[in-house]
Amino acid sequence: MTTAQAASATPPPRRKVVGVPISVVDYDRAADCVIAAARQSQPYLVTALAVHGVVEARTKAEMGQVIERFDIVTPDGQPVRMALNLLYRAGLTDRVYGPTLMLRICEAAATQDIPVFLYGSTGEVVTALSQALVAKIPKLRVAGAEPSLFRPLQADESATLAQRVRDSGAGIVFIGLGCPRQELFAFDHRDIIGLPQVCVGAAFDFHAGHKRQAPQWMQDHALEWLFRLSQEPRRLFGRYAVTNSIFLFALARQWAARTS
């Protein structure tokens, strides 16, 4: 971590991809910013958006407004990274994938003795996730792990949850509620929790061993969506048919506008 980053956790620059601000960032910079914010006990919002998340932010006003307020929005999917490079010559050699970013942050947190808190998914998943993270990163301290209630929290429930997080001694909160619920939750609880919140979605299921990740070669060639579709065709076919089409059409229009 550089001195400048440690002092301020200054967010990296962002560029609009189909109208949605995406950070020009790599794993090291993103993790450095989160650790710096944790050391200062300051609110800091991070999410990783693939095509689905970008389209959610483009087409749903509340999600779009919330994403504008995030400190870092990483290019989680290869198509989003490629779009940044195409439109802005960003020079990004890899995406910043939520599950991998989670591990990078946990590794850095372990070396600096910053405990983490896990919120989301089911009780079975967060318990398995906590055990898996500590097995993989023995020095990591998991200060708490709570499942989602799978509904919006009432004001008193939000206050109680925030108090439990603060009382746990955690310095970083990972949220696994799925897009857009996790981003809306993080924004709504930004000040009441008062710590870095990192939205990582399916990372909870992947690291807990409840779902398989795509083979690395498919991830590298922007085919992760195809693997996930093969795993959950009924749930994902409609999503991908719509969101991929919206993204590609909007990207083509943005590219045409830049080159005309």
Description:
The protein is of the alpha/beta class and 260 residues long. It has 2 domains: 3-201, no CATH class; 218-259, no CATH class. Helices cover 57% and strands 14% of the residues. The protein has 14 helices and 8 strands. It has helices at 3-8, 27-39, 51-59, 61-68, 78-88, 98-111, 123-136, 155-168, 181-188, 190-193, 203-208, 216-220, 224-231, 233-259, and strands at residues 14-17, 20-23, 44-49, 72-75, 116-120, 142-146, 172-176, 196-199. The protein has a 6-stranded parallel beta sheet with strand order 4-3-8-7-5-6, sandwiched between helices. Mean pLDDT is 92; it is low at 1-7.
Give the distance, in angstroms, between the N- and C-terminal Cα atoms.
41 Å
Report the order of strands and helices. HEEHEHHEHHEHEHEHHEHHHH
- Percentage of residues in strands: 5-15%
> Taking strands numbered 1, 2, ... along the chain, how are they ordered across the largest sheet?
4-3-8-7-5-6
Low-confidence stretches: 1-7
Query: In total, how many beta strands?
Result: 8
Rg, rounded, reads 18 Å
Instruction: Give the overall silhouette.
Output: globular
Mean pLDDT: 92
Domain count: the total is 2
Helix content: 55-70%
The chain-level structural class is alpha/beta
Largest sheet, described in full? 6 strands, parallel
Count the helices. How many?
14
InterPro entries: WecG_TagA_CpsF (IPR004629)
Pfam families: Glyco_tran_WecG
Keywords: Glycosyltransferase, Plasmid, Transferase
Protein name: WecB/TagA/CpsF family glycosyltransferase
